[in-house]
Design brief:
Blueprint: H1 3-22, E1 31-35, E2 38-41, H2 42-58, E3 63-66, E4 70-73, E5 79-87, H3 89-94, E6 100-107, E7 110-118, E8 123-128, E9 133-135, E10 138-139, E11 152-155, H4 165-178, E12 181-183, H5 188-196, E13 202-205, H6 210-222, E14 226-228, H7 236-239, E15 242-245, H8 247-257
Parallel strand pairs: 3-5, 11-12, 11-13
Antiparallel strand pairs: 1-2, 3-4, 5-6, 6-7, 7-8, 8-9, 9-10, 13-15, 14-15
Length: 267
């Protein structure tokens, strides 16, 4: 295993132990609202501190970008870890056992290693650039479905960007008309991991943050998939509007988003 990936796995397990210990124990932690429909808990902060401590103890000259704490460590480093300590905080607060830990390492802007960990199911998704993607050490690949017909697509409505809703609903309707069914799980990193291992055929969502998709993006690429924005381009890095799957699924999803007529608010 890539040595930096090994450290990331260790950090993810440490945070995952905290999540598993606290899931369903709502009276044991404090919940606050960062902004409408965006929660944070003491557990988020404890997990981020735990991950950051492990990473910077091993790599003192690296930077760590966390969802809650911003950039820590050497802000000028060519190495930047991007972490989401508790992806699916709303699920966690509600006691829903579907939560992820996401850790990715970028070197000069290229993602080198990725970890997405489900501490409840004890599933560790890992990838190193050029070395493929694994689930608990076994090689994974995206699904081989030839078209959207019969497919299961993960998605979400843009509840944190409600001004997009009126434009997104017709797109969602077209998606439902062209696939077998959709899933809305509430954990972007695990949605991406599930595409990487073939559980979902594809995925699309609006307005993700870097810590939501940094690890999952590499998992999908190393599992043979494609990641684009809703226009079929690489603008998701800035917009957070992600669409992914195998080449045939991506082609079908881009017919659903229809870049030529896609409303500006969804670009």
């Amino acid at each position: 295993m890539h040595p930096m990936l090994n450290i990331a796995v260790r950090a993810a397990r440490a945070a995952g132990n905290i999540i598993a210990r606290n899931l369903g124990q709502n009276d044991q932690f404090e919940v606050t609202e960062k902004r409408k429909d965006d929660l944070v808990t003491d557990v988020d902060r404890e997990c981020e501190q735990t991950i950051t401590s492990i990473l910077l103890k091993s790599y003192r000259d690296h930077a760590v970008l966390g969802e809650e704490g911003g950039v820590q460590g050497n802000k000028d480093s060519q190495f930047q870890w991007i972490i989401d300590p508790v992806d699916g905080t709303t699920n966690f607060v509600q006691g829903v056992p579907h939560v992820g830990v996401s850790i990715a390492l970028k070197h000069n802007g290229k993602t080198e290693v990725a970890v997405v960990f489900d501490p409840i199911k004890n599933e560790m998704f890992t990838a190193s650039r050029g070395d493929g993607a694994q689930l608990n050490g076994r090689r994974i690949r995206v699904a081989s479905r030839p078209s959207l017909e019969g497919s299961i697509i993960a998605t979400a409505v843009p509840v944190r960007y409600r001004e997009r809703m009126s434009a997104y609903i017709p797109l969602l309707s077209r998606l439902i008309d062209n696939c077998a069914d959709i899933r809305r799980m509430g954990v972007a990193s695990l949605d991406l991991a599930y595409v990487a291992c073939g559980r979902f055929d594809g995925y699309l969502e609006q307005g993700l943050k870097p810590w939501d998709f940094a690890a999952g993006e590499l998992l999908i690429r190393e599992a043979g998939g494609i990641v684009t924005d809703f226009m079929g381009e690489t603008g998701y890095v800035k917009s957070g509007n992600i669409l992914c799957g195998n080449p045939n699924i991506v082609k079908g999803l881009l017919k659903v988003t229809d870049p030529k007529t896609l409303p500006e608010v969804l670009r």
